[in-house]
Amino acid sequence: MKKSIDELISLKKILVLDGALATELERAGKNINDSLWSTKILIEDSEAIKKVHLSYLEAGCDIILTSSYQTTIKGLMKRGYTKDEAIEIIKKSFRIANEAKEEYLLKNSVEVEPIIGASIGPYGAFLSDGSEYTGNYEVLDSEMRDFHYEKIKILKDEGVELFACETIPSFREALVIQKICEELEVEYYISFSAKDEYSISDGTSIRECAGNLNGKYLKGIGINCTAPEFLESLIREIKSVYNGNIVVYPNSGEIFDPVSKTWSGNGQCVFDLAENWIRAGANIIGGCCKTTPQDIKKLADSIKNKKIKNLLTSIAL
């Protein structure tokens, strides 16, 4: 049975989001060191993308995200594709995710269908210079609007029902995206990248961001692509000014260098902290860079266990 995100939350209380896509492709031997990032694989070997989607569905995800984070008309045309070709590649990101979902549903009996969210990355991701982690890009609001509007409209017309506006480093950009989604009447959440326990990447406090985002179609505010140790504080800051869904999907704990595009340090099973995040107020939880289907399965299994169910009865979500 197909349900909206509101209906799914009402039914399950806690939703499981998927984990990393790009780093899973790397683990499978794909080279994504490219300005198009995982879009390169969407073009060259979309079956590899589908396999990752399927692995997360089989792990127990309620929501999977498309491979469209860095799939933009501007970015694709810069690489020599025509506008029509770029539009088809954007549409393909949703079609591949939907194919994975249909294959999963053919083989599995489920109470409710998983939701496909369209990944909408920040303007800085197109620049591919690390500014997506700082928000320090000099661009007019009107240029950001044009950049995001066309992609969101294309995916809406293709049938996308939820837009995951993620790794947003700038509050100014978040406001631009909110206006577009409200105008197009599409359900969406906005998830920021954070620099510490209290601030998003551009230095704006997460409390200020959450307190000033609102809209009929806004389905959540959150944090992703961020160190797991920052999350509990950030969730509490959001919760203090916002009564809606709180979305969190941290990195594994390793540190990414946006200039060299390399990882350092040791990862951890970040989902050992999920109980703390739920207690703080999060109710949509997944993983970002370097997290795996195995990590997400552990998360999904833990949410189903008696301890978490007892926790849910003791707190007001």
TrEMBL record:
InterPro entries: BHMT-like, HCY_dom, HCY_dom_sf, Hcy_S-methyltransferase. Its cofactor is Zn(2+). The keyword Transferase applies. GO terms for molecular function: S-adenosylmethionine-homocysteine S-methyltransferase activity; zinc ion binding. Keywords: Metal-binding, Methyltransferase, Transferase, Zinc. Zn(2+) binds at residues 225, 288-289. It comes from the Bacteria. It holds the Pfam family S-methyl_trans. This is S-methylmethionine:homocysteine methyltransferase. The gene is mmuM.
